[in-house]
Amino acid sequence: MSAAQRKSGNLPCELTSFVGRRREAAETKRLLSVSRLVTLTGIGGVGKTRLALRVADDARRAFADGVWLVELGELQAPELVEETIATVIGVREQSAPGTSAILQRHLADQQLLLVLDNCEHLVAAVATLAAALLKNCPNLRILATSREALGIDGEAALRVPPMPVPESTRSSFPAGMAQYDSVTLFAERASRAVPGFAITDDNGSTVARICERLEGLPLPIELATARLRAMTAQQILDRLTDRYRLLTLSSRGAPSRQQTLRLCIDWSYDLCTRSEREMWCRLAVFAGGFELDSAEGICAGGLEPEALLDVIASLVDKSILIREEAGDVVRYRLLDTLRDYGLERLRESGEVEEMRRKHRDWYERLASDARSGWIGPRQLRWVARLNREQPNLRDALEYCVSDPAEAESGLRIANDMYLFWRSFGLLNEGRRWFDRALAYSSAIPTTDRITALHAAGMLAGAQGDLEAASSLVSEGRDLADRSGDTAMTALMTSAEGFNSLFRGDDLHHAVECFQTARDSFRADADPLQEMWALLGLALASAYLGDVTRAVECQREIQKISEAHGESVYRGWSLWTAALAMWQRGDHERAGSFLEDGLRQTRRADDVVNSAWCMQILAWIAADNHLPKRAATLMGAAEALWQGVGGPAAVFPQLAGHHDELERRARRELGGREFDTAFRRGSGLDFEDAVAFALNEQPRAITDSPGEHPSLSRREQQVAELVAEGLTNKAIATKLVISQRTAQGHVEHILVKLGFTSRSQIAAWVVEQGRIGRP
Fold first, then answer.
1. Within 13 A of 346's CA, how many CA atoms are on the CB side?
2. Could you write out the three-class secondary structure of 599-651?
3. How far apart are CA 727 and CA 228, in angstroms?
4. Residues 6+ apart with CB under 8 A from 609
5. For the residues of 440-499, what is the DSSP string, one character each?
6. Which of the pair, 325 or 553, is modelled with greater confidence?
7. Residue of 570, 576, 504 whose CA lies nearest to 538
8. What is the maximum alpha-carbon separation in the chain?
9. Whole-number pLDDT of residue 705
10. 584's torsion region: left (phi>0), alpha (psi -120 to 50) or beta?
């Protein structure tokens, strides 16, 4: 995602023109101006999503931090709503308290519009999260689409009606037809299907009756116009009339609009060839879209690749499939209504279980291939593919963990996804899948279970959940010893080293663990785990003051990385070596390492390690008496940490360094100028922050409106918690920082505001309107 996209959001480009809906759009905008939650309701196919996207696009300028679309239609697990939203808006959740708390902190002072699309099957989960976000994020607004309202306080619900239709008994055609949105939509889509199509005296009455028969529902109208390539408008009307008459007779009365929608989809389905119908149903197994290779691997049946592509292209022509470009690849997807229909037909045919298993098997192979190619020249391509396939991978995992008989497959997929989750900050999500898969799988010492215990322990330790990490690693060690597998023993030895590193209680033991594991991985020709052991050894050595060994580890990692064309761990190794050089006082070499590391992390879109690089660069600037640069880098790093819920791991050895250097920079620059520079840094997005750190030219950033000129973003949070009556210990727990750091923030606030007591801070917060705002 580009820098501009990170600031403006992720709304897709419209593939077709937006027709009509002026009244509904105006009313939605009005409601959004007076209510922080607006929900568009209505039946499937009525156009809720298109209306929401148009209103959101028109509102972009009002939201400094962007407009973000979160598509929930393909999500089946309510517990993943938070992670899905976090992933979309770029929050690489890291810390243990949970993604909801991280989202609240990240969005606390952002002016942002969240568009939650297709919430009806997740109403309870979405409502709970929306209520928490709106309560704690005063500048956040939410625009949701759902077949029913969320039902929480402050919600404004607007039912989206069908488009107006003309009375087919009128004789003045085509005069006056343009006032009806349904007719305008028909004409616009028809001209795309058949260039040169226009409503005339000859076909006007027919078009009017088609729109009337379809009750002004946009989706059926679009499906009908796609048929004009092969049929006349009169033939379409005749087919629809016959079906409508049958529906009326069978239901003993006029059909509802839901039945009208079903009628049109049934009709579209029946007009498809047998191959098209089979493909429509099979493609419904995908969540969030698919690419051609996955369709070939899961849905082809006996079709050759060329024939399968022809069928898919035909479904695109018939408006059944939507074709979208994602970078340099093409993806396809079914609208939710058409996907639900396809799944229903798939169940009727008895194929649904077979197709779900094929889907699981294919994505298990994809995850395995990504794991195998992770240390290689295609690493960044695998990262991009796994990002695109998150809905399908989650669906495959859900299939596995919902059935004890499939738990072993769930473990294998989770093990293969571990590197992606760990490297890009999806720690809570990874832990959740491992917890569920481990709960179902047996305690037999299989390599899959031991590997999963290692991964789950590493994720827990990286979040500072040391008790859980110790328990998982201990179980993994016992199983590894029972198995007699030296590779598994080395894996758990490495995990023990990281646990010691996270605890900070026995760094010499950590060094021993990493050395032993490194030797074993090298003997087994396992470059990935060898690099992990070397990373741990570099960190432990740096903390012990052994700069020479830390730098040697970095060189070994770089050698392995370059030999395999890898990018991610090369960047990680550079900041660990820089930390060692900084501790020794060699700022020039440390800065050189960090600049190389930032270039690597920028290529990999690695926010976590970019934040570490900027943090150390800020310390170097403070040491070199460059307080303005230090403050700007501290602000940039803080903003990145906010996006990942705090540092990826709590290293006790670094406690106090940052606060002392911040105090030094503040004294040299002066409080007001320091805060101004800090705010400028925190206003930089990822691309611009890296550019500033590398002394490139970032875009000009204006100060964030509405902030007090003296307090940093974190200090504002602390002040609000003080006003709520929290102690330093409680503040530290809530913000996942040390108690000493929390105390330092409180002292800074007292000095900056000229106060002498916490009660004065509380009074100031209330006066500023930061507590109890609507």
1. 22
2. HHHHHHCCHHHHHHHHHHHHHHHHHCCCHHHHHHHHHHHHHHHHHHCCCCCCC
3. 70
4. 571, 572, 575, 597, 601
5. HS-SS--HHHHHHHHHHHHHHHHTT-HHHHHHHHHHHHHHHHHHT-HHHHHHHHHHHHHH
6. 553
7. 576
8. 92
9. 37
10. alpha
CA dihedral 481, 371, 434, 647 (to 10 degrees): 100
Q: Tokens representing 371?
A: 């794991």
The tens digit of pLDDT for each residue in 113-132 reads: 999 998 988 999 999 999 99
User: Which pLDDT value is given to residue 253?
Assistant: 54
Q: What are phi and psi of 619, to 5 degrees?
A: -65, -40
- 42 dihedral zone (left: phi>0; alpha: psi -120 to 50; beta): left
pTM of the model: 0.76
Q: Give the neighbor-by-neighbor strand order of the sheet with 37-41.
A: 67-71, 112-117, 140-146, 37-41, 155-159
Question: Encoding tokens for residue 136?
Answer: 């704690």
pLDDT (tens digit per residue) in 134-152: 999 999 999 999 988 999 9
How does residue 249 score in pLDDT terms, banded at 50, 70 and 90?
low
Find the mean pLDDT for residues 497-508: 88
pLDDT band at 275 (very low <50, low <70, confident <90, very high): very high
Q: Which residue has the tokens 């009709």?
A: 267
* Per-residue model confidence as pLDDT tens digits over 165-200: 887 655 455 556 767 888 888 988 888 888 888 888
Among 280, 279, 293, CA closest to 385 = 293
Angle at the Cα of 579 from the Cα atoms of 658 and 94, rounded to 5 degrees: 65
Dihedral sign (CA 716, 718, 724, 725): negative
Give the residue, 728 or 310, on which the prediction is more confident: 310
In this predicted model, what pLDDT tens digit does every residue of 61-77 receive, in sequence order?
888 888 999 999 888 88
Structure-token pair, residue 587: 């700022």
For the chain, what is the mean pLDDT? 84
Report yes or no: 591 and 617 within 8 Å, Cβ to Cβ.
yes
Residue 71, beta-bridge partner list: 117
Q: Using alpha carbons, select from 602, 627, 607, 615 the residue that is nearest to residue 696.
A: 602
CB 707 within 8 A of CB 617: no
**682/635 Cα distance (integer angstroms):** 4
Continuous segment of H or E residues that includes residue 680: helix 671-682
Q: What is the CA radius of gyration of the chain?
A: 29
Q: What is the pLDDT of residue 680?
A: 86
Residue written as tokens 């400028």?
Answer: 680
| Cβ contact 419:373 at 8 Å | no
At position 600, the amino acid (one-letter code) is Q
Of 159, 78, 188, 118, nearest in space to 339 by CA: 118
Tens digits of residue pLDDT in 640-658: 876 665 554 455 556 567 7
**Alpha-carbon distances of 56 from 12, 155, 398, rounded to whole Å:** 11, 17, 32
